Amino acid sequence: MPTTNKPLDVIVIGGGVNGVGIALDAAGRGLNVLLCESHDLASATSSSSSKLIHGGLRYLEQYEFCLVKKALAERELLLNNAPHIMWPLRFRLPHQPHLRPSWMLRIGLFLYDNLAKRQRLAGSNSINFSANSPLVSELTQGFEYSDGWVDDARLVVLCAMAAKQQGADIKPRTRCIKARRQQDLWQVTLQDTQTGAISHYQTRVLVNAAGPWASSIFNDVIAMPAPKALRLVKGSHIVVPRLHDEPHAYILQNSDQRIVFVIPYEGEFSLIGTTDIDYVGDPALVAIDEQEQTYLCQVANEHFKKKISAHDIVWSYSGVRPLIEEHASAQPQQESSQQAQHVTRDYTFHLDTKDGAPLLSVFGGKLTTYRLLAEAGVNAISPFFSHIKHPWTQTAILPGGHFRDHQHLQSELCQDYPWLPQHMVARFVRSYGTLCHHFLYGAHQLTDLGIDFGGGLYQKEVDYLVQAEWAYHSEDILWRRSKLGLVLNDEQQQQLQHYLTQRRS
Ligand SMILES: Cc1cc2nc3c(=O)[nH]c(=O)nc-3n(C[C@H](O)[C@H](O)[C@H](O)COP(=O)(O)OP(=O)(O)OC[C@H]3O[C@@H](n4cnc5c(N)ncnc54)[C@H](O)[C@@H]3O)c2cc1C
């Protein structure tokens, strides 16, 4: 039963984007940080998003100007700090007069262009869709505007790596099972979810960044009443063979006033989502249902020439948005008349210091605002540390992101490793940036990369992911460190799992 005697400064519960963001910010400000995550990093909401770095055009309708402004300002900053896993994405918005009127869309887009300073992202404009457009012939006019794309799960892993570089102890597959205040310290019990081993720590500050579990942590781990209710809202996405060959994403306005994105995905596919359905139950068990599949196919079919049905779905995923229930007591899942899509996407903190050692709880949030949230969270606990440094993450480049642009890095890799197939070079640039040298360096031909698992995945990359990026199970590699699960067949996936199991023994 190992116990560390020297108290830590901060223990963060939760290895989603908000938890790793806080761990990174705090470690870089000189605090002694440990982060625990029950499963793999990004195994919950932070790998189940629409993967957009965006202000959220539709939130303007809900008068969420502050949220949209801060998210818009953050877009360009994030694009600079992680150029490998994030890039600008142009959106097309077909206009249908019976839905939102065009004057409203123009005002919305004007605000979207101007609420925050833009340097890299182009502004909006109107467009006409020609007969060659992938859209049905009734859709002839619309608008274009810019937002950003992010590989959400890799963002989490890269933040965790950066936090480790700053000295944080990152512990995936480690559940926080108990935390109790004893005067100025928290006594925290962690359990290794693979071996069952228990360890005990002391910390000055406890951070609850458990996403959809942020409320239940109070009952199950801390034994205190939750200060805020979370409304759990399920959002699902489907992946189908690509609906069009253009680089643009489409934002579709459905007749129920909901928005559905159709986004180019992993070269061969389109990502279509999302739904917004109240969810009751264990967030870990969330899954798409038949109704959602039908809904997403139907919205796509109403807009695109190429028709799809549930049979075309090659993959789907669902996540639970932990949204702050306004005007509600701390009774999760209670009945609410507010439509799920209208509940705020902004975050709030709850800092509890009244009985001794501080507890900071994070409620809500968006991928796009994770860095701001982390900075604000660490600012909130900074009065408890005399030695804490100033905020620093605004211009901090995430691991692998020190390069000029995708094209430049791609040419460099082609020069350094001329034997690498183009599809692998392209994937390495957008997943690893310069980190790929860690597993490519010293190789002179493909066979130097070891076992071929298929789809361009070789042993050297797998070994790197295990050693440097905390990969453990095949799904950590196939669905979070990459999306090669879309490419490898069952036999290849089993071979990878077999290799990982053997490697550990
Ligand atoms: C469908 C959908 C689409 C979205 N699209 C976008 C988008 O396009 N752009 C955008 O900006 N935002 C988007 N979001 C929002 C964004 O994904 C979330 O705000 C964000 O991922 C929440 O991160 P988190 O760290 O709070 O939670 P999570 O990622 O869920 O992380 C919480 C972690 O805590 C862990 N945990 C729980 N209990 C314990 C315990 N006892 N011990 C240890 N670990 C524990 C869990 O295993 C989990 O991994 C979307 C969300 C959804 C659901």
TrEMBL record:
Keywords associated with the record: FAD, Flavoprotein, Oxidoreductase
Enzymatic reactions: a quinone + sn-glycerol 3-phosphate = dihydroxyacetone phosphate + a quinol
Domain FAD dependent oxidoreductase: 9-327
SUPFAM superfamilies per UniProt: FAD/NAD(P)-binding domain
Record GO cellular component, one term: glycerol-3-phosphate dehydrogenase (FAD) complex
Gene3D superfamilies: 6.10.250.1890, Alpha-glycerophosphate oxidase, cap domain, D-Amino Acid Oxidase, subunit A, domain 2, FAD/NAD(P)-binding domain
GO biological process: one example: glycerol-3-phosphate catabolic process
Superkingdom in the source lineage: Bacteria
Cofactor names: FAD
Coiled-coil residues: none
InterPro entries found in the cross-reference section: DAO_C (IPR031656), DAO_C_sf (IPR038299), FAD-dep_OxRdtase (IPR006076), FAD/NAD-bd_sf (IPR036188), G3P_DH_FAD-dep (IPR000447)
EC numbers on record: 1.1.5.3
Domain spans labelled Alpha-glycerophosphate oxidase C-terminal: 393-496
Molecular functions (GO terms): glycerol-3-phosphate dehydrogenase (quinone) activity
A Pfam family hit: DAO_C
Family, as annotated: Belongs to the FAD-dependent glycerol-3-phosphate dehydrogenase family.
Designated name of the protein: Glycerol-3-phosphate dehydrogenase
UniProt organism field: Oceanisphaera avium
Lineage: Bacteria, Pseudomonadati, Pseudomonadota, Gammaproteobacteria, Aeromonadales
